[in-house]
Each structure stands twice: as C-alpha cells, then as structure tokens.
Amino acid sequence: MLVKGLLEPKLSLHIAYALAGVSLVLALLMPTLSARILCLLAIFFSWEYSAPPLRLEALGLGEFTVTLVLNTLVPLLGYCLQSGGLQPHPLLLVLIPLGIIEYIRMMVMNMADWESDATTWKKTLVVRIGIENAVKVHGVGMVLAYLSLIPLSLWGVPLLVILALASTAYMGLRYAYRLQQGAWRQKGTMWRIPYVASTHNGLGGSAALIGMILLKPGFSPAALEFFPLYLYLGGFLLLKLMARLKQPPPAVAA
C-alpha cells in the first residue's frame, strides 16, 4: 500500500503505533503471568524485526526473529492458554522441525532480494554469508528438519504426528533440490520459490495439527478444528491451479 501510494507513510506509522498499543493492552490482560510474558516477548521481537533501534533483520537475525515469534512464542502462547501453564509435553517437540523449516523459509524470502539488499543498510543473513552459501545452508536445513523426526519419534511424539509431518517432505526436498541446482539464478522463475517455500512452511504446520486432531478420541472430519485447515488447503490448491493457468503454452515447432 505504501509503494502504490494508497497510504501516507505518516498515517501508516500512526496506525502501527495504535495497533502496538492495542497489542500491549491485550498482552497485559492475559490470564496468567507466563502468557503475559510470552505475549510481550512476541510483540517486542515482532516490532524490532525491522524497526529501530535494533532492526534485527538488517543484522542478519531476521530468520531467527521470525522463527522465534511465529514458531516458538506464538505456539507456546496457544499451548499456555489452553493448558493453563507451560508444562512439558512431547508434542511441543514438533516445534523443532517446524522451526528449522521456518528459518530456511525466511532465507528463501531474502534470497529473492539479496542483490538489492546488498546495496542498502539491509544486510540480511543471505547478504552477509553470500547467496551460494545461503543456498547450501538451506539444503542442509531442509534435510536436517526431516531427519529430526527420527529422534522425535523416540522422545514420545506420536507416530501419527510424525507421519503427517513426513508427508510434506517431498514438496520441501523438491524445491530445496531446485535451489541447489541453481534455480536462484533464474530471475524469470525465482519469484515462484518464495511462494513454494511459504506454502511448504504452512503445510508443515497444518500437517502436524491434523495429526494432533486425529489423535483426539471421537474426532470427525466435520469438526470445527478442521475448518481453517480446509480453507488453507483449498487456497493452496486454488493458487496452484492459477499458477498452472498462467504458464505459457509450449512452443510448437514449425
């Protein structure tokens, strides 16, 4: 909206301050001390991702910050609110592979803009270590994320949840392999990779959630818990169909 001029920068900043104030009030209204702390930490790191004085993304800590907020603090907050506290539970170990996937997903997001970022103050992790090293780290991270499912199964994570997460491996390993083969050099198609990475990231979390829901006694496919998952998967299939329709037809030899 800012780029298109639909919103004035000053107005955008005022809205951000107002929403931050609302978030702080809601955080302080959380029912337990642990929930309040988790909320305040999530707000702090979310704000400092790109805002001064820290600007964590520009310090090469953007991937860490996003993973900390979206794949650690927010799930822990949900668990805390539903269980009444932060008691240890084997299912929390699922955050390990999901956190790795989120981390390397954010690396992909920064790969798309690494050249322009390198000419500004925005020294992301990809800029700092170099695009080729970033691609290697991404590949190792993807393999590590799915290999971590093996010890998780030994540490008490239910097999159904492990299998649900493992079902997303093909999609993740496939696009990681494409990056290793030099897809990041192809400017005409590189823009697709961040969309695939984000979709894979969301599907991983959805798969784990589906596995957890299936463990509930007396579950039904019509259960309310499945509704947002149906919306997400429906949107994924729709976007995939639209991407195929946009592809140019193959050239016909004369």
From TrEMBL:
<feature type="transmembrane region" description="Helical">
    <location>
        <begin position="221"/>
        <end position="239"/>
    </location>
</feature>
<keyword id="KW-1133">Transmembrane helix</keyword>
<dbReference type="Pfam" id="PF01040">
    <property type="entry name" value="UbiA"/>
</dbReference>
<protein>
    <submittedName>
        <fullName>Putative 1,4-dihydroxy-2-naphtoate octaprenyl transferase homolog</fullName>
    </submittedName>
</protein>
<feature type="transmembrane region" description="Helical">
    <location>
        <begin position="15"/>
        <end position="47"/>
    </location>
</feature>
<keyword id="KW-0472">Membrane</keyword>
<keyword id="KW-0812">Transmembrane</keyword>
<dbReference type="GO" id="GO:0004659">
    <property type="term" value="F:prenyltransferase activity"/>
</dbReference>
<feature type="transmembrane region" description="Helical">
    <location>
        <begin position="59"/>
        <end position="79"/>
    </location>
</feature>
<keyword id="KW-0808">Transferase</keyword>
<feature type="transmembrane region" description="Helical">
    <location>
        <begin position="125"/>
        <end position="147"/>
    </location>
</feature>
<feature type="transmembrane region" description="Helical">
    <location>
        <begin position="85"/>
        <end position="104"/>
    </location>
</feature>
<dbReference type="InterPro" id="IPR026046">
    <property type="entry name" value="UBIAD1"/>
</dbReference>
<feature type="transmembrane region" description="Helical">
    <location>
        <begin position="153"/>
        <end position="173"/>
    </location>
</feature>
<feature type="transmembrane region" description="Helical">
    <location>
        <begin position="193"/>
        <end position="215"/>
    </location>
</feature>
<dbReference type="GO" id="GO:0042371">
    <property type="term" value="P:vitamin K biosynthetic process"/>
</dbReference>
<dbReference type="InterPro" id="IPR000537">
    <property type="entry name" value="UbiA_prenyltransferase"/>
</dbReference>
<dbReference type="GO" id="GO:0016020">
    <property type="term" value="C:membrane"/>
</dbReference>
<dbReference type="GO" id="GO:0009234">
    <property type="term" value="P:menaquinone biosynthetic process"/>
</dbReference>
